[in-house]
Design a protein that fits this description.
The termini are far apart. This protein is elongated. Helices cover about 75% and strands about 0% of the residues.
């Protein structure tokens, strides 16, 4: 294995350990000393791979962004209708945090308490990007499918995302006992039905 490959592997190992500690220690702040012990290296060794703990969190946020938005791109490029695309995106978000509880703590900001402001700004931007994507899908569905929402698209997108965010926060607050996908299919059925009007009749 080359030095570069070893460096990448160690970086990934550090990020995986951080994510695991966030999952195993709900509500607790992770110190670099504890993280170094988990990885089995010195704190100095950690800082050779990441100049600060904030950069470690940024690495995890980057993983979240890449995982979610690469799949969202596939969803929006598919042939399914707008309502189904919105459902798939929200279900993707909930299933992702259910599989990665440590990431749920980052998305709610729970793990970022006391950390640098730019981390919280980046999480805010991630959710703004999700909301913009939902709004764009609804606007395109109106043009292509004649679908219209009962309230303005921006308001509807905000409500959809708020429902998903609430489920994620319940997951974190319950210390990962209350699964975010629990009850989601029937909840989405009610939410989707209530937000959309029937397609406009053809002239």
């Amino acid at each position: 294995m080359s030095d570069k490959e070893q460096k990448i592997s160690r970086r990934e190992q550090i990020l995986q350990a951080l994510a695991q500690m966030l999952e195993n220690n709900p509500g607790q702040r992770i110190t670099t000393a504890a993280l170094a012990r988990e990885v089995g290296v010195s704190e100095a060794a950690l800082y050779r791979h990441f100049p600060s703990k904030a950069r470690m969190f940024e690495g995890l946020i980057g993983f979240i962004e890449e995982t979610l938005f690469s799949r969202i791109t596939l969803i929006t490029q598919s042939d399914v209708g707008g309502v189904r695309q919105c459902e798939q995106i929200l279900t993707l978000l909930l299933a992702f945090v259910e599989k990665n509880p440590g990431m749920a703590r980052i998305l709610t900001g729970d793990a970022l308490s006391g950390e640098t402001e730019r981390l919280r700004v980046r999480i805010n931007q991630l959710f703004e990007r999700l909301e913009t994507q939902l709004k764009q899908i609804m606007r395109e569905a109106e043009v292509r499918e004649g679908l219209r929402t009962e309230i303005p698209a921006g308001s509807a997108a905000n409500l959809m995302l708020a429902a998903a965010e609430g489920r994620i926060r319940q997951f974190v607050r319950s210390e990962f006992k209350r699964r975010p996908t629990e009850f989601w299919p029937e909840q989405w059925a009610r939410l989707g039905t209530g937000l959309y009007r029937a397609p406009a009749a053809s002239a």
